[in-house]
Specification:
Layout lengths: L1 H22 L8 E5 L3 H8 L3 H10 L1 H10 L4 E8 L7 H21 L2 E6 L7 H12 L7 E9 L1 H19 L3 H7 L2 H5 L12 E4 L18 E4 L9 H13 L7
Parallel strand pairs: 1-2, 1-5, 2-4, 3-4, 5-6
Helix pairs in contact: 1-10, 2-3, 3-5, 5-6
Length: about 260
C-alpha cells in the first residue's frame, strides 16, 4: 500500500507543483525568506536513525531549498542552522553536528551560485569551525547570486545586544556624549548594526516541524513579517511544501504589523 501511494505521489505531485508555480503572482513573491530548519532530531527518531543522521538529512535538503527560492525570484534567504541555546546541548551531539554544518556550508560555497554570509556569535564556536565558515563565505563574495545568510550560534536577543554594543562603541570612538546619543538614537541607528545590516527585512518566515513560535529568530527584523508553519520535519520538507508557503504568502493582505 505504501509503495502504491508513493507511486501516485510521484505522478501527481509534479503536475500539481507545476500548476501552483504557474499561478503564483510574480509581483507578490517574497524577496527575503527566513527559514527555521527545525525537526532533524525528531525526524531521526521517527525513522529509527541516530541524531547525526537526522542532521545530515537536514543538511542535504538545504541546496534544494535554495534552488526553489531562486525559482520564484527570492533575493535573500536566511537559514537558521544553530541557535545559541543549541550550543548547550551535549558535547557528543555538538561534536557531530558542527562539522555537518561546516561541511554543508562549504558545499554550498563550492556551487558558486550563492553569496554566503555567516551571522551569529561565531566566537562561541570552536576556532576551527568558525574559520571554516568564514573561509567558505569569503570564497563567495564575488558571486553574483542570491544572498544566503547562514545563522550559526544565532540568537535574536544576542544579536540586538551586539548591535547596541557596536553602536555604543562606535559613538564612544567618536567622542559622542551619552546625553547626545540618547536624544538622537532611533530604530534605524540600531538596525545599521544588526547582523543583517543593509539587507531588507524578511517578508516571510517559514518554520518546519509543526512548532508555532519564533524561538528568538530574527526578533528585530521579523516585526512585520508574515509567518508560515509547516507540519513536516525539516528533512521531509518538499518543493510542494515550499510552494504552498509562498502561495499562502501571496494570498495574504499584508498589514505590516498593524
Amino acid at each position: 500500500m505504501a509503495n502504491w501511494k508513493d507511486a501516485v505521489r510521484r505522478v501527481l505531485y509534479p503536475a500539481y507543483e507545476a500548476r501552483v508555480v504557474r499561478r503564483l503572482p510574480a509581483d507578490r513573491m517574497p524577496k527575503h525568506i527566513g527559514v527555521m530548519l527545525d525537526g532533524n532530531r525528531r525526524w531521526a527518531r521517527a525513522v529509527g536513525a541516530d541524531t547525526a543522521q537526522g542532521h545530515r538529512a537536514g543538511a542535504a535538503n538545504i541546496e534544494p531549498l535554495l534552488g526553489w527560492c531562486e525559482e520564484v525570484g527570492v533575493d535573500v534567504v536566511t537559514l537558521w542552522l544553530l541557535s545559541t541555546d543549541n550550543l548547550n546541548r551535549g558535547a557528543s551531539e555538538l561534536d557531530a553536528l558542527l562539522p555537518i554544518i561546516a561541511d554543508a556550508v562549504e558545499t554550498l560555497a563550492e556551487q558558486r551560485r550563492w553569496r554566503l554570509h555567516p551571522m551569529g556569535a561565531l566566537d562561541l564556536l570552536s576556532a576551527p569551525i568558525a574559520e571554516r565558515l568564514k573561509l567558505a563565505a569569503e570564497s563567495t563574495q564575488d558571486v553574483d547570486g542570491m544572498l544566503v545568510n547562514v545563522a550559526v550560534g544565532y540568537g535574536g536577543r544576542r544579536e540586538i545586544a551586539d548591535a547596541v554594543r557596536s553602536l555604543l562603541q562606535e559613538h564612544a570612538g567618536r567622542g559622542t556624549p551619552i546625553e547626545e546619543l540618547a536624544e538622537t538614537l532611533d530604530v534605524e541607528h540600531i538596525a545599521q548594526h544588526l547582523y543583517t545590516k543593509g539587507q531588507p527585512d524578511p517578508d516571510l518566515v517559514i518554520r518546519t516541524s509543526g512548532e508555532q513560535r519564533l524561538g528568538g529568530f530574527l526578533l528585530w527584523q521579523s516585526a512585520q513579517s508574515e509567518f508560515y508553519f509547516c507540519e513536516a520535519y525539516w528533512p521531509d520538507f518538499r518543493r510542494v511544501d515550499f510552494l504552498r508557503a509562498v502561495r499562502a504568502y501571496a494570498e495574504r493582505e499584508r498589514r505590516f504589523g498593524s
